[in-house]
Amino acid sequence: MHDSGALMSNDRLFKIDQLRERNIGKYLPLPQLVAVGDQSSGKSSLLESVTGIPFPHGQELCTRYATQITHRRDTNSFISITIIPGPQASADHKNRVEGYHYEVESTAQLQAEFPDILNKVNICMGIRTDKNPDGDKTFTTDVLKIEKCGPDEDYLTVIDVPGIFRTTTDGVTTTKDRDMVKNMVTRYIKDSRTIILAVLPCNVDIATQEILSLAEEYDKTGQRTLGVLTKPDLVKERSAKASVCSLVMGERKTLNLGYYIVRNRGGDDDENDADLEEREDMFQQEPWSRLPQDRVGVKALRERLQDLLGEITDLAFPKIRAELRSMLLETDEALVKLGPPRQTERQQQQYLVGIAGKFQSIVRAALDADYSSNKFFSEDSAERPERRLITLIVNITHWFNSAFRNTSQTFYFKGQSEKPQDDDIKDNQNTLEDVGRLPSYVSGCPHLANIIVTNWSTDDPKTGIVAWIEENYRRSRGVELGTFSPAMLSGVFREQSRKWPTLTQQYLSMAIIAVHDFIALCLQAACGETDADKITTNRIFDGVINELVIRYERAMGQAMHLVELERERKPYTLNHYFNDNVQKSRGIQVKNYASRHAFTEMHGNPNYRQVVAINDLSKAITDKSNAEHIRDEIHENLQAYYQVASKRFIDYVYLQAVDHHLLSGPDSPLRLFSERWVLDLNAAQLAAIAGENRHITTQRQNLKMKADDLREALKIL
Ligand code: GDP
Ligand code: MG
């Protein structure tokens, strides 16, 4: 046995060797040798002669898949055998073949176990053979990979591909097989980094060998195709020998780089065959002895291959460099996408603090309606109104205000328009549409469903306030002289404000949904878009949801508390508008009465004047029955107080429940997910939220290693 690695001692390959050590071969193909030719032309045998590695040959009809032999420098010596799934392999098949792995210690062991190994590989790939009759295919694009590792291994990749064939055999090969094999071979020889060894047996006519035209097609300048003639020992006729010789001498220019002639091991396991030197003794004889010695035998071929590999490598460098560069770019991008590492407590904290910072800066801008500061707000804002939070809240508050004005009272007041303003209607329609468009996480959040309502409909007030007041008065009057008791006003006010709790709950519900949806979107934006980011988003959300719900409840509670204060306490106000209103409505009554009794005075005065007799005027107040008078008074007081109380109430609900408890107060739900919150997490909580899946850690390590390798490789080149 000759030793194997000797092919690569050339200095020019030192760089490739270094790349190899940097594992670059893992990322992109480096220069490689591939033997192509017809079935049984001696490809496998040739590669064995050149590399000393026993290729499977002669045992079966032919090679059924590509075999790639690579060398890798490693402190330990071993040979590892794996299968690379073909490009179109199904997930199932991929799993199966990738599950195969076998290791041997030496070439000798490999040789001894080869038949057995191949049998297992065939079963794994599903190749049909005598020993594996259940196999379902004759050829496969799966690649058998044999990696020879050791401290002295030089760079070299050698590929043995199935032989191409033209005629199909019934029950064995199909035209589909034929095309598949041809494609497989083409894929290898297409690569400008591949040195093509066109293997031709001496005992056939080279004119019939398809491989030469195929090689020419992909290696137009012929600078990486070597012709190798095998089986010279099988040529018996003198004229045939002469014809082979003229080929080797370059007298028939069919290949740029010319032909080499080698004698491989024959199929008969002849004792003579065992030794290369003995086999090559034949070249000492006529007519072979007349051939130039640098074209004869394995040693000469190896030397030529070595030079050629050097040249091809030089040529391949720019392309390799470009590929390394773009690969490095991709790797760096992938690394950025993975985000910062999050293994240690500190890294996890930094990671979350970063997200919380982004979250809070969006919150700040949202509360200030500073929508140009962050692209968060420009993303489909029409479809997602909750992004522009404060605007939505203001709209909702307008809805509340006008719904309150128009529908909050149980009875219409006297003279109150039963039709709300057109502007209000339009405004409210838009707000309700906005709220309806919120994706609302209510369905996915049962806690929220217990706090809020989602029915926005409101009942119109009833008519007949005068009758109702009268009825009330009749039922509850005491011994009062010409007036009514304060309890009376309390009672009618409570009745008149019966819808306040429902309206307020609707208002708070809209605001809570808006805030909640905003938080969800904002969190998503702060975390990022990748799958890993989405995991983080969900974990943070899970981490804050309980406290969020508590804060929503607090806001709702505050609002309901305010309702209760207004409705359950004795009506009271210091607001001078109350008196103003009462007096104004009295004035209106007097004016109404007076205008009914007025007449027009002319007196040569250019301006018309309405005049009322003083006696008539006094009747404006005295003309009523006591009950009538009190009824009117109750109505005046109720209306005046209702106006003052509802304005006060609306303001306070907004200021306290919505603004303070939901938006800008220090304990609002928007302020929850903050740096403070992150810093308060203990180690276990931190790890649960920010810790990364092991596969991401591995992925990052691999990418980092790859990026380092690539950077180093670029430096080498
Ligand atoms: P492949 O199908 O192209 O890989 O061809 P193989 O390498 O399997 O060789 C086919 C047969 O030819 C095997 O039995 C080999 O031993 C035999 N063979 C290959 N090269 C030579 C040679 O130079 N001389 C002789 N006598 N037999 C050879
Ligand atoms: Mg073969």
TrEMBL record:
GO terms for cellular component: membrane; microtubule; mitochondrion. SMART domains: DYNc. One of its GO terms (biological process) is endocytosis. PROSITE patterns: G_DYNAMIN_2, GED. Residues 631-717 form the GED domain. It comes from the Eukaryota. Residues 27-318 form the Dynamin-type G domain. This is P-loop containing nucleoside triphosphate hydrolase protein. It comes from Cladorrhinum samala. The lineage of its organism: Eukaryota, Fungi, Dikarya, Ascomycota, Pezizomycotina.
